[in-house]
Design a protein that fits this description.
This protein is mainly alpha-helical. The protein has 26 helices and 10 strands.
């Protein structure tokens, strides 16, 4: 009893050939991307692939991820059964039944149980997508088709197995509970009817497999069953918290104005996307009504590559713009400029797609190739070029905060730490208070430190994230030259944006600095007993701690601020609902500090509302940008009773003498 291989063989061979050709045609377009990628190596890659593709560590962060894990592992287990199905369709004698019972029975048991679990998981997934979808646009024909076809596949499997059991042709029947139950239901049918049921189920199974091979895997998001696993293997060696440098020569093209100007890994990312929507659900721009949707950006890159790739391979010009009005395959400019570079999308992605570098590459094209950017950035760019700070204030004003303190310049070979004050800490009236408190703490702990004074320049963080790589490159080279000339090797910063730029970006310029954020240093000083507190701070009341994106997600510094607050106040700070890796951006990153929000609601108001839901007396921050955004938000919310304090200010309270 077996369908005719003369019919099945040409069908499956044609399907497999079409499958191979389709994948070659689509994935071959990845080679259009720029070369270069910092791969972890085979050993680390296999480890990452095991943890995140097979164990699905990030998928399981959300409760419903367990449902996907069941479907995934069912596909892995049943892949062996499907291979046997295909081979036996061509060579009927080559069946699992030839195996000894020690192998055959466990395989049949697993196949039966996993198929049943998959049907349950598919039913739950259909209900979820219909009743409470992961994101509003998730109810697509493609998604329903994939789920239903997997369900049909499982039903066909049970039809084949139940018919064989009813006919007495399955020796593992006692170990196949679901199929045996169904086989008992069919036991009243005649042999002819059972054979007809077997043949129908067999061809239904074959049809579902052929549909997967020829349509669903090559032409839908279901390609991720291959590409997502590969993307976990190819996970970047370091966090994607910096950008590639550019070589500034006449005739070169900068940024990504068309799809082949992206890196090959960027293009591969677009095929690895599972369209799960986790990135868009955590995006501060998207959730506050801006047109940015990280999932759609990746989808548009893929559509643009499919539309333009064949033409580009032949040396032709693209017909669909990568940056356009936001039509299919084009990313609209407002979406590009809406990004706060917070990295929440990359942290949420279960397969390590890197959204941020692609957005910055498109910003680079707009700024450096077309001089097309939001009008309010013109002053910023001019101020940075002319006076090396966002406000255009004279460099001589950088040391005004020292008027009441005895601050020494950094001396080569004598001073241990450079206190890199930063633009906000030097010029912003509110942040200067933090700088004074930090200086007081360093002196009290006996730390050897000094400043560059008027010779300090902006680190260039906002320039790089806004796509003005040319000015950033010049500024970075000037800073590196100053650091080398002065013999700077250790740097203290109070701004996470300075922290990540000096620590990560400047490595590309051969500058390996030991950069420490003031929250980390204060924690170390407290733990070592070098910093003594005079009292336990209680007047700040209930404190809720905000995680800065550039300190937390981009650099994994979470514990130091919490430990400092706990040490000074005697109690751990309260947490936001969205905290640590899931912290919600204040809205100032990615150069958005210098831009207005014209669309949707303000990002800082979203975060301030969340803070106020905890009924705090004090919101504790470790970033001057966050300080500004929270204080502005509290004014808008008329919540003047809630204070905003930097970590250094909290510690300074504990250093004051007991009255």
């Amino acid at each position: 009893m077996h369908p005719n291989p003369a019919i099945f063989t040409p069908l499956i061979l044609a399907a497999l050939a079409f499958f191979a050709w389709s994948l070659y045609q689509r994935l071959g377009l990845v080679t259009l991307g720029r070369p270069g990628y910092s791969f972890r190596g085979v050993g680390e890659g296999l480890r990452e692939m095991f943890l995140y593709a097979f164990v699905q560590k990030r998928v399981l962060r959300q409760g419903f991820g367990f449902n996907h894990l069941i479907i995934f592992w069912a596909c892995i287990v049943l892949a062996f059964v499907n291979v046997e199905f295909l081979v036996s369709g061509v060579f009927p004698a080559a069946r699992l039944a030839v195996l000894p019972d020690a192998l055959y029975i466990p395989i049949r048991f697993l196949s039966d149980v996993m198929s049943a679990l998959t049907l349950v998981a598919i039913a739950l997934a259909l209900v979820r997508r219909t009743v409470f979808p992961p994101y509003p646009e998730a109810r697509t024909f493609e998604s329903y088709l994939i789920l239903c076809l997997i369900g049909v596949h499982m039903i066909a499997f049970f039809g084949v197995s139940a018919a064989e059991i009813a006919l007495g042709q399955e020796r593992a029947a006692a170990f196949m509970p679901v199929s045996s139950f169904l086989g008992n239901l069919l036991s009243g049918l005649s042999d002819t009817q059972l054979e007809a049921a077997f043949n129908f189920s067999w061809w239904l199974h074959a049809g579902a497999l052929i549909a997967f091979i020829t349509v669903l895997i090559p032409f839908t998001k279901h390609m991720h069953v291959f590409t997502a696993i590969a993307n976990c293997f190819l996970r970047r060696e370091e966090k994607p918290n910096t950008q590639e440098t550019e070589i500034f020569e006449i005739g070169r093209t900068f940024g990504a104005g068309q799809v082949d100007r992206l890196g090959w890994k960027d293009l591969f990312d677009s095929f690895a996307c599972t369209k799960c929507g986790r990135c868009q659900n955590v995006c501060p721009a998207g959730t506050t009504g801006k047109p940015l949707n990280p999932r759609q950006v990746i989808n548009d890159i893929r559509l643009n590559l499919l539309a333009n790739g064949p033409t580009l391979k032949r040396g032709g010009a693209p017909t669909v713009p990568l940056i356009g009005e936001g039509g299919e395959g084009s990313v609209c400019e407002e979406a590009i400029w809406s990004c706060t570079s917070c990295g929440a999308c990359m942290e949420a992605c279960p397969v390590f797609i890197e959204h941020l570098p692609k957005i910055v590459d498109m910003r680079r094209h707009l700024v450096e190739m077309e001089a097309r950017f939001p009008e309010e950035l013109l002053n910023l760019f001019e101020n940075m070029e002319q006076r090396s700070n966002p406000w255009g204030i004279a460099p001589s004003e950088r040391t005004k905060w020292t008027s009441l303190l005895e601050v020494k310049p950094f001396e080569k070979g004598e001073t241990e730490y450079l206190l890199y004050v930063g633009c906000a800490g030097s010029f912003d009236s509110r942040s200067k208070q933090v700088t004074v408190n930090l200086a007081t703490i360093l002196d009290a702990a006996g730390v050897s430190w000094g400043i560059l004074g008027k010779d300090e320049k902006c680190c260039g963080d906002s320039l790089r994230r806004l796509g003005n790589e040319y000015v950033f490159d010049r500024m970075a080279r000037e800073n590196v030259a100053i650091f080398r000339e002065r013999g700077v090797t250790k740097v203290i910063v109070q701004c996470p944006h300075c922290f990540t730029t000096l620590k990560n970006d400047y490595r590309q310029y051969g500058m390996e600095l030991e950069v420490i954020h003031h929250a980390e240093l204060i924690q170390q000083l407290l733990d070592a007993g070098r910093l003594k507190l005079n009292r336990q701070v209680s007047e700040l009341g209930k404190i809720v701690l905000h995680d800065s994106c550039y300190l937390g997600r981009h650099n994994d510094v979470y514990e130091a601020p919490r430990q400092v607050v706990a040490t000074v106040t005697g109690a751990a700070p309260a947490e936001f609902d969205r905290a640590r890796e899931e912290s919600f951006c204040c809205g100032a990153g990615g150069g958005r500090m210098w831009m207005e929000e014209q669309t949707g609601t303000r990002i800082n108001l979203n975060r301030v509302t969340e803070a106020l839901s905890k009924n705090p007396d004090t919101i504790c921050v470790a970033c001057p940008y966050c300080m500004t955004m929270f204080e502005d938000g509290l004014k808008d919310k008329q919540a003047g009773q809630t204070r905003v304090r930097d970590i250094a200010e909290v510690v300074a309270e504990g250093m004051r003498p007991v009255q």
